[in-house]
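Quick one:
INPUT:
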């Protein structure tokens, strides 16, 4: 469990992303870094972080998640 503040749902998301990245040939460290960054970006976009974020920052995080999803969909 990388972070104590992550919910079980985010833990599953982390493990799933990490496994996908390893299947794509990434190293263990890189896969962990990508998975953690993705989970943290999702938590920020959904407003699950401890720090209260301003609406513009949440909107920017959601936009970043959308752009990442579109890029990953094109790779498949």
């Amino acid at each position: 469990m990388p972070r104590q503040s992550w919910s079980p749902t985010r833990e599953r998301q982390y493990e799933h992303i990490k496994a996908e990245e390893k299947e794509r040939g990434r190293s263990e460290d890189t896969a962990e870094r990508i998975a953690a960054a993705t989970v943290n970006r999702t938590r920020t976009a959904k407003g699950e972080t401890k720090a209260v974020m301003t609406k513009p920052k949440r909107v920017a995080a959601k936009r970043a998640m959308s752009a990442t999803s579109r890029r990953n969909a094109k790779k498949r």
